[in-house]
Amino acid sequence: MNVFRLAGDMTHLLSIIVLLLKIRTMKSCAGISLKTQELYAVVFLTRYLDLFARYYSFYNTIMKLVFIGTSICIVWYMRFHKVVKQTYNKDQDTFRHYFLIPPCFVLALFVHRTFTVMEVLWTFSLYLEAVAILPQLIMLQQTKNIDNLTGNYVFLLGAYRSLYLMNWIYRFFIETHKVRWIPWLSGLVQTALYADFFYYYIKSWKNHEKLKLPA
After folding, report:
1. Residue whose C-alpha is closest to residue 126's, from 11, 47, 34
2. Among 14, 33, 160, 204, which one is most buried in terms of CB atoms within 10 A?
3. Are 32 and 136 a contacting pair, CB within 8 Å?
4. Phi, psi at residue 130, to the nearest 5°?
5. CA separation for the pair 100, 102 (Å, rounded)
6. Residue 188: how many CB atoms within 10 A of its CB?
7. Whole-angstrom Cα distance, residue 121 to residue 148?
8. Where are its TM segments located (predicted)?
9. Which of 108, 92, 114 has the alpha carbon at shortest distance from 34?
10. Which 8-state DSSP code applies to residue 175?
11. Which of 125, 127, 144, 159 minimizes the C-alpha distance to 212?
């Protein structure tokens, strides 16, 4: 544990709180990609299967349970809640997200640290998380009015991954000096996907303008 990982975890948790706040208080998921949320549910379910095999710490266990539980909860709200599901912009959530899963799984079968079920699934979750935001970003490009909560949610998600990159860099120089190519490159790809969004988010905040992404 270090300050970057803790900040990353808290930023990630804050992003989920912002999203649930939007869904619970506004009874709306407008502007949110169900496909991205489904991919995140797959990410956390496959990454944290070690809950049943290993114990690291109370903090680690609680955070894993929170991420699994909230990801499933969000998908449930968007698919089945009688009010919230009516606000889902299905016609704008057009990315075929199921095409992302097979290549990520195949890549995990060939590029991993050790060939075990838990390790391959953990690696798969990293590859899938790197691209899971794509449906959301594409949806935002098609949305004319991006509300503040949605914009803040996506920004916090990107900030969380950026902080985790700093965590890996810190651990390399201060702690282990081990090269961890899989999380490094996955995190770098994921952060790069947010670059365009970061630019327009900061620009809109600086100029006190409504957030809008170019089509």
Report:
1. 47
2. 33
3. yes
4. -60, -30
5. 6
6. 14
7. 35
8. 55-77, 98-115, 121-140, 152-170, 182-202
9. 92
10. I
11. 144
Tokens 């095999």 belong to which residue? 53
Least confident of 126-130, 151-155, 171-175: 171-175
pLDDT of residue 90: 92
Tokens of 100: 């992302």
Q: Which residue has the tokens 């282990």?
A: 176
d(CA 43, CA 68): 9
Contacts of 150 (CB under 8 A, 6+ apart): 22, 30, 31, 32, 140
Both tokens assigned to 47: 């990454």
Nearest Cα to 62, choosing from 138, 124, 135, 10?
A: 10
Q: Which residue has the tokens 């390399």?
A: 172
Each residue's pLDDT tens digit, 6-61: 999 999 999 999 999 999 999 999 999 999 999 999 999 999 988 888 888 999 99
